[in-house]
Amino acid sequence: MLALRRLPRFTPRLASIRGNATLDAAAHTPADTPPPPPPPPAAAVTAQASAAEGKQAEDGSRDANADGGSQQQNGGGRQQPAQGPREWCRPIAKGVEPAYDYALRYILKDAAFIRKELEALRAELEAAESKPEGERDEAALQSMRERVGILEIQSEVNLPDVRWKARNGMADMSKPIYRHLVEQRWREEGDLDLLMERIYQMNVVPDMLPALHPSFDLRVKFAEPPPKSNYLRTRVKRSLKEVEPGIFLFPEQTRRPPELSMTLFHTDTRLYTLLMVDLDVPDPERQSFTTYLHWMQPNIPLSAFRSAPTVPLNTHTPYVPPHPQRGTPYHRYVLLMFPQASPTEPIDIPVYEEADRLGFHFRAFADQYGFDGSRGGGAHMWREVWDETVSQIYQYTLKKEEPRFGKLPKPDPYAEVKRVKKYL
What are 3-39's pLDDT values in tens digits? Predict the structure, then answer.
């Protein structure tokens, strides 16, 4: 319905464009070659095409002003791509689609109405809080504070520029509206669902802990998978790649500690404890499996204003790279970031030596220091199997002999028969 006729715009300029042919070739053109068709009159250009051309000229000038510095540095050549997400701009001009114009006016009018209601409620709340302590109704004050928080979000939740920033990584987490939109996206658009699906599919719950209810988004980055060519393995620099929960990684990818990033939704600073545990270490004495503590770091301050830990993460119980034993099935590696019992008071946890890491009993540890997966936190997991890199980890990092496991040979029910000669 809104398609524009583009051919008349460019047709008047075709006569002035010179191709690859030289002037000599043009001079020796046969006389019987028909001349090119004359350009259409200027009146043939429709009003819609003129309007579209003017709009594109505006967009071009705006983009040129935005990227003018990069174009000057590149000698006026090809325009360089944007280095990051841009601010929201109206997708269509005014008057092109009346329904869009009406919807935008309605959203702005509704936001102004809610802001007016919010200002009145804030004034009422300030008047109630100015009363002496004996005359205050704490229940009513708490209800009014909750109502103010709701109106703060409702006054901006439908604005296109706010949603654009929340969607494209430009959210200001100091504002409640952006915290609400980012958390809503994490909870409702599949990221949290995928994490919990893998947690329960791989039986992390209940094998490790009875319940887990993550309250913030914890993301893990390891090195990219190594190239298949041995020649390129030592010559190609691999970048970090975000790990999807539950996937298989090569032991070579996890030889160094991961890069952690998180998105929290509380503005106050709280203390967390980092744990990384292997749930599938073989226990030959009991003919079963036990756990191994790979990493621990308590007293990590986190808030919505910090997308990554600001303290060193290898100062308590240092990181030991995953080393799934030869002959065992895949190992589940679980990374947890638990809130501490007191959000402001540090806890004193002894450093775990190498002998204490094997057989780490998480449930007893959680009961002793007050960790509870149902109170929130962050979680992530992945899987690994043995390969040749594990032998190097045992030799150079752990500096001990590599164990080997396997299934016991099945008894042969025909062993006695095989000992007897078939023919005399």
Answer: 433 434 434 443 333 333 333 333 344 444 445 555 5
Length of the chain: 424
The string of pLDDT tens digits covering residues 273-288 is: 999 999 999 999 998 9
DSSP code, position 255: S
- ω before 206 within 30° of 0 (cis)? yes
**Residue 100 in contact with residue 90, Cβ under 8 Å?**
no
Judge contact between 133 and 177, C-beta under 8 A.
no
Q: What is the DSSP string of 140-180?
A: HHHHHHHHHHHHHHHTTTT-HHHHHHHHTT---TTSHHHHH
Residues 6+ apart with CB under 8 A from 55: 93
For 411, which DSSP code? P
DSSP state of 137: -
Quickly count: other Cβ atoms within 10 Å of residue 349's Cβ.
16
In the three-class reduction of DSSP (H, G, I as helix; E, B as strand; rest coil), residue 314 is classed as coil
> How many Å apart are CA 337 and CA 244, to the nearest integer?
17
Mean pLDDT, to the nearest integer, of 50-67? 44
Phi then psi for residue 267, to 5 deg, are -85, -25
Q: SS3 for 379?
A: strand
Please, are residues 275 and 414 in contact by the beta-carbon 8 Å criterion?
A: no
Return the ∠ at Cα 273 (arms to 268 and 276), rounded to 5°.
Answer: 140
Compute the C-alpha angle 173/174/180, nearest 5°.
55
Residue type present at position 283: D
Distances (CA, A) of 131 to 9, 136, 139, 388: 71, 6, 14, 72
Neighbours of 127 (CB within 10 A): 9
Strand (E) or helix (H) holding 14: helix 7-14
Query: Strands 217-223 and 270-283: what pairing?
Result: unpaired
Closest CA to 90 of 5, 159, 6: 159
- In whole angstroms, give the CA distance from residue 184 to residue 175: 14
| β-pair type (331-339, 378-384) | antiparallel
Could you give the C-alpha distances from 48 to 8, 92, 102, in angstroms and in order?
Answer: 11, 14, 21
What pLDDT, in 10s, does the model give residues 99-158?
Answer: 999 999 999 999 999 999 999 999 999 999 998 988 888 999 999 999 999 999 999 999
Q: Cα–Cα distance between 68 and 76 in angstroms, integer?
A: 9
In 3D, which of 369, 364, 384 has the Cα closest to residue 208?
364
- Is residue 298 a contact partner of residue 341, using CB atoms and an 8 Å limit? no
